[in-house]
Design a protein that fits this description.
Elements: H1 3-16, H2 21-28, H3 32-39, H4 47-57, H5 61-66, H6 75-121, H7 126-153, E1 156-158, E2 165-166, H8 170-175, E3 177-179, E4 182-186, E5 193-199
Antiparallel strand pairs: 1-2, 1-5, 3-4, 4-5
The protein binds zinc ion.
Zinc ion is lined by residues 159, 161-162, 164, 187, 189-190, 192.
Length: 203
């Protein structure tokens, strides 16, 4: 995706609609900084608000992703290309995130165990022990929270009964029994429980 081109296109369409960045952001319930980031090509609009953004700007999602108005005769071809590209990019970034999760997870566990070891076995005052343990616990839980977020959002979980692929809620990820990344969860499609595997692609 050419984010710079898309950003310029968003700015152009916004001005044509007679909206300021602030007015557009208010319509979408986001900050004007987010709009400015898109227009400078530093970020892409989240897929959750893309439809609404396009309807405000009077363009199609396909045009937004191409960064230009598309002639009707080329429409289907570019639509397909854009969807494929978007999907590939999501899969790539999900893979990176899931790898990151493993390494950050390992590093955090190691660091945490080191801190526990130091607090338990080194010759320290009790205050000093607390001073080591409390921040270590807080740090550990914050990282766990963030890593579980990655696990929830990156890729999909696949039901082993009906093979439905979906993104589970954060709480169902948190409370599910798990072995590695495979989690015992209830499928929203067939309602059966099974050990669900993480998959990157939806098809
Ligand atoms: Zn199912």
């Amino acid at each position: 995706m050419d984010q710079i081109k898309i950003g310029k296109f968003i700015a152009e369409c916004r001005k044509k609609s007679g909206l300021t960045q602030m007015e557009l952001s208010e319509k979408l319930n986001i900050t004007d900084r987010a709009v400015s980031k898109w227009e400078n090509g530093k970020a892409m609009p989240d897929s959750s608000i893309m439809l609404e953004l396009c309807s405000i700007l009077g363009i199609t999602v396909n045009e937004l992703l191409s960064g230009e108005v598309i002639e009707m005769k080329d429409y289907d071809k570019t639509a397909e290309e854009n969807l494929i590209r978007l999907k590939k990019e999501k899969e790539e970034s999900d893979k990176v995130l899931l790898n990151l999760e493993i390494w950050v997870g390992l590093a955090t566990v190691l660091l945490f165990l080191t801190m526990v070891f130091i607090a338990s076995y080194c010759d320290l005052s009790n205050n000093m022990r607390l001073l080591i343990m409390i921040p270590s616990f807080i740090f550990f839980f914050i990282i766990c929270f963030l890593l579980l977020r990655i696990e929830q959002k990156a890729g999909y979980y696949e039901c082993q009964k009906c093979h439905h692929k979906y993104v589970p809620s954060y709480s169902s990820i948190c409370w599910a029994m798990h072995m590695g990344r495979t989690r015992y969860m209830k499928c929203p499609e067939c309602g059966k429980r099974s050990w669900q595997k993480k998959v990157i692609s939806k098809d």
